[in-house]
Write the structure tokens for this entry.
Amino acid sequence: MKLLHQLNDREIPLCLLFNRINHWKPVSLFFAAVSRLGDGVFWYVLMLMLPLIYGWRSTGFPAHGAGGADGADGLQIAENLHRAGAPLQP
């Protein structure tokens, strides 16, 4: 229990610092932009652009991703894109 109190004593000032930093306009705008990237619109546009970038053989991948791809599915998508001629990024 003592360890939890010590962690809490260190966490509260850190949280307050991050809260103060987030009140700076550039920082707040940055996190708002990152949050917006997590919204569906960005990902749907990205999925619609795959055929334009990698050709029509990649049209099955956005449908697969829209169905709720997990990590293993993501690896399968990357492998299929590589087979379609897309370079793999490390």
Observations:
- Residues 2-37 form one domain.
